[in-house]
Amino acid sequence: MKIEFSGAARHVTGSKHLLHLNGKKILLDCGLFQGRRKQAAKWNAMFPFEAKDIDVLVLSHAHIDHSGAIPLLVKKGFEGPVYCTHATRDLCAVMLRDSAFIQQRDAEWMRESGKDPEAEPLYTIEDADKAIAQFRSVNYDHKFKVSDGAFVTFRDAGHILGSAVEEWEIHDNDTHQDIRFGFTGDLGRKDLPVLKDPVHLHDLDFLLTESTYGDRLHDEIKDVEEKFAQSVNDIRKQNGKIIIPAFAMGRTQEILYILRKLIAKGKIEPLPVFVDSPLASATSEVFQIHPECYDRELADLITRGINPFISGEGVQFTASVDESKALNKFPGSCIIISASGMCEFGRIRHHLSNSIQDDKNLVLIVGFQAKNTLGRKLVEGESPVNIFGEPHIVEADVKIFNAFSGPQPVNK
Question: What range does the domain containing 304 cover?
Fold first, then answer.
């Protein structure tokens, strides 16, 4: 047995780990690199292995830095199964098509603008659909055979919907050893909203885990709820807007849950909340069909008739571009939750462009920000920042609530 690190080793994104076992090549995750666009494009265009030589892929969860290169793997010749949980499969069906759509649109713009007449997407929507057809989903806590001498059981990782830590039972035919191997993907934290706590693996011989936040402490989620309520109330008093860059999958649903919870407790008065991300709308629909992933508190809230993942009680999921643009002229205080979570793509850039130069407003950072992203520049207090190629002075308040952060890999 041998492990080859092909991504997310001393990097934040692009998770790919190649397991050589009993004559087979098993890939653990297949994510896209994120960060500087030119550098990311270069790294994403190639694999340090032959795609057609990979026999099996085991996927820990649906975040793009772990799953986003799967259509490219298939495009380059991978024909094997992709094993994951049911919720991960459903989320990837949405996420990978969205990733392909964005790439196709960006490549078209690069060609039409003359910046790169030969620009092409890494993969298309058709490639994403072909990849999804190779997914094979499995229940949590059900042991299944991956290949000769290798069995895996998915345990709940508590990171995002469907995320799994992998408990491997391996017989190495070369050494005749029995090995218990654990792979975490990304790990969640105890007592976070929406999802169950992560399951701890025991009696392992080897553990491969992420360590993004291994050198720091997070705020307690209960403390952050109080701070969150205070921030909302303060901005409401000065008639400002709260702009929340949030990953469409996971973080958006956590914020919606916290808002509904605080409103139900009377800690904040209801105010308009706009989820301005078609992807967030689609992934919220996936959340509704996987109650097996909910923690008890969310399950109880839904039993009481309060569902954070649907429109109502002041929450509106915008659909069209016109609806999104109309938010720029919205009178009065409101909350706008929009993707992408690192402020690099999507509608969030328009909202930041129209909001960060007004000191009545608040930009609330609720997720990890990779180096060289617009989100990281805001976190580090840089001003001005470039949005759509134009400098913007940052007058709005910027706050970081790191208690929400679900770790992403740095050193593995």
Answer: 221-404
